[in-house]
Amino acid sequence: MIGRLNHVAIAVRDISAASALYRNTLGAQVSAPEALTDHGVTVVFITLPNTKIELLEPLGADSPIAKFLEKNPDGGIHHICYEVEDIAAARDRLIQTGARVLGAGEPKIGAHGKPVLFLHPKDFNGTLIELEQA
Ligand SMILES: CC[C@@H](C(=O)O)C(=O)SCCNC(=O)CCNC(=O)[C@H](O)C(C)(C)COP(=O)(O)OP(=O)(O)OC[C@H]1O[C@@H](n2cnc3c(N)ncnc32)[C@H](O)[C@@H]1OP(=O)(O)O
Ligand SMILES: [Co+2]
């Protein structure tokens, strides 16, 4: 069911400082910051030859990233995103297996303008998984 690794997301406290680190120290191409109010995050993308890195800064205290940073003050890997061909079919299959699909199973439009869903980290070895329709 799952396809390409679309991105690995890292929670950061200061997206400007984290972007500068990737740009200046690692020599990466970093996109301009974008605020996604629907997801409670400011995001930048770093495009690598085989996948992307997503840096996420919380947009307000209610952001899932703010809660993650409370528990992980240095930041860290927040989720990994796999592509799926048909997100509704993937959701139905996952629900049948008993996996918890977050957000009542309703896809939201993600950072790339495509539908995304999240799966509970407790059902996947402590890793939050995002699915993005390819
Ligand atoms: C840029 C847009 C988009 C894209 O297109 O790429 C994005 O990526 S947006 C990214 C941000 N959005 C989300 O994270 C949405 C999905 N997340 C959630 O719904 C919640 O964050 C959550 C995963 C359900 C956790 O929320 P909650 O239960 O309220 O928090 P707790 O702190 O109580 O966590 C419970 C339990 O789970 C552990 N946990 C939480 N987050 C993670 C994580 N990212 N990775 C691994 N484990 C995580 C947390 O530590 C708790 O465990 P215990 O302490 O053992 O109880
Ligand atoms: Co993501």
UniProtKB/TrEMBL annotation:
Enzyme class: isomerase
EC number: 5.1.99.1
Entry-linked InterPro entries: Glyas_Bleomycin-R_OHBP_Dase (IPR029068), MeMalonyl-CoA_epimerase (IPR017515), MMCE/EMCE_epimerase (IPR051785), VOC_core (IPR037523)
Domain VOC stretches: 4-134
Keyword terms: Isomerase, Metal-binding
Pfam families: Glyoxalase_4
A single GO molecular function term of this UniProt record: methylmalonyl-CoA epimerase activity
Stated family: Belongs to the methylmalonyl-CoA epimerase family.
NCBIfam families the record matches: metmalonyl_epim (TIGR03081)
Name of the protein described by the UniProt record: Methylmalonyl-CoA epimerase
Gene: mce
